[in-house]
Amino acid sequence: MAGIFYGWIGIYYGNMAQMVDTWQFHYSGIQEYQLLKHDPGEYFTNLFHNPYQGGLTKFFGTTDSYWNDLKGNFIIKFLSILNIFSFGNYYVNVLFYSFITMFGPIAIYRVMNDVFPGKKIQVLLAVFLVPSFLYWTSGIHKEGIIFLGLSLVIYHVYFGLKQRRFSIARIIYILLGLLLILILRNFLIVIIIPALIAWLLAAKFSKYGLAIFTGCYLFFIIVFFTAKFIHPNLDFPRAVVKKQQEFLMLKGGSAEPIKELKPTIGSFLINTPQAFNLSIIRPYPSDVKHILSLAAAAEINLLLLFFLVFLVWRTDGIRDKNFIYFCLFFSFSLLLTIGYTVNFLGAIVRYRSIVLPFLVVPMVCRINWAK
Fold first, then answer.
1. Residue 259: which residues within 8 A CB-CB, separation 6 or more?
2. Which residues contact 241 (CB under 8 A, 6 or more apart)?
3. Phi and psi torsions of 292, nearest 5°
4. Which of 18, 173, 29 is nearest to 94 (CA)?
5. DSSP letter string, 281-335
6. What pLDDT tens digit does each residue of the chain (371 aa) get?
7. Contact 163, 114 (CB under 8 A)
8. CA separation for the pair 182, 185 (Å, rounded)
9. Which candidate, 341, 353, 282, 350, places its Cα nearest to that of 17?
10. Contact 76, 321 (CB under 8 A)
11. Distance CA 35, CA 313 (A)
12. How many C-beta atoms lie closer than 10 Å to residue 245's C-beta?
């Protein structure tokens, strides 16, 4: 139902709410399906074509980059396969898409249900029914498959650590999840790998979980700013700055004026409050321009209210604190990255939707609802 609503919004609001992508993917998927019928050779090889000079080296680039094109081309190829069975009907494709991507929330539900025993209803509601998460991961776009990739990794790492055994099948699922993330939002790889390393080390020395996460992230922050001295292509601060500049060059109704980053530690520190404000607190009620921004503003204010309630009335009952540290460090590093690079509120709401379950579930499960 949410996926069908997503498609309808794409027609009804279109450019005003920046909702044209889903239908562009659909029509491109039909063209790709026709290519399968008339030129199978090209169909099975064009995903690996690199039309740009040096396009393979622009891993984080948004222009003339093979990696930037790959995420859209992958969705189009995926939809072309669905069109074999749906005869090119968008809303039938939604059923297939939702069936496949539903495994992501189911996996996280099972993990959270194990972490918070006796909190089944809270986990169920917070995993599946956070409005922006439900909306953006149900529609035909990248978010549903990205969350599926994240869930495959998290589910199999969590239960692998719990059972103290990583079978070949479990490792394959983890690699598949990382591959989906790499294809559809490659910068997420740079964010999730440090979180996974810290999680694995914390599981090894569980008494020092928070100290290990803090130490690992301090180490990775140092590497982030100094890796350029090892090799010029590892200039991560400049890559973030370039990403921000590419977003600033785009035009859209939800664009916000922001301070421009520089590839220095000082500039990143100065821009940190702005980044968190953009990715965690916006949109304000004053930012409302249409039904989607109204829903996003209402949701974020409700979640902030829940957070205040959590600070006043909270309980214990966490079975695995190291997993919660993973959720927090991974989520806030992603939110910080979004805030540094993206200045479109509509895009920010969509990008951050995939981490909301990792923050909302621990919060609502630790609120003392009786009080």
1. 270, 271, 274
2. 260, 261, 262, 263
3. -70, -40
4. 29
5. IPSPGGG--SHHHHHHHHHHHHHHHHHHHHHHSB----S-HHHHHHHHHHHHHHH
6. 999 999 998 888 766 555 678 899 999 999 999 999 999 988 898 888 877 776 566 666 666 677 778 888 999 999 999 999 999 999 999 999 999 999 999 999 999 999 998 899 999 999 999 999 999 999 999 999 999 999 999 999 999 999 999 999 999 999 999 999 999 998 899 999 999 999 999 999 888 999 999 999 999 999 999 988 888 878 888 889 988 888 888 776 677 888 889 999 999 999 999 999 999 999 999 888 888 889 999 999 999 999 999 999 988 767 789 999 999 999 999 999 999 998 888 889 999 999 999 999 999 999 998 88
7. no
8. 6
9. 350
10. no
11. 59
12. 13
The string of DSSP letters for 166-199 reads --HHHHHHHHHHHHHHHHH-THHHHHHHHHHHHH
Residue with tokens 């010029």: 232
Query: For residue 142, which phi and psi values (nearest 5 degrees)?
Result: -80, -30
Cβ atoms 29, 76 nearer than 8 A: yes
Q: How far apart are CA 198 and CA 37, in angstroms?
A: 48
End-to-end CA distance of the chain: 35
What span, in angstroms and rounded, lies between the C-alpha atoms of 345 and 359?
20
CA distances for 19 relative to 103, 148, 278, angstroms: 25, 22, 20
CA 283-98-80 angle, to 5 degrees, is: 105
Whole-number Cα distances in Å, 168 to 106, 162, 172: 22, 16, 6
For the purposes of burial, counting CB atoms within 10 Å of the CB of 295, is it exposed (0-12), middle (13-18) or buried (19 or more)? middle
Query: How far apart are alpha carbons 15 and 20 in whole angstroms?
Result: 6
Helix, strand, coil share (%) of the chain residues, nearest 5? 80, 0, 20
Query: Residue 168 contacts by C-beta under 8 Å, 6 or more apart in sequence?
Result: none
Model confidence pTM above 0.90: yes
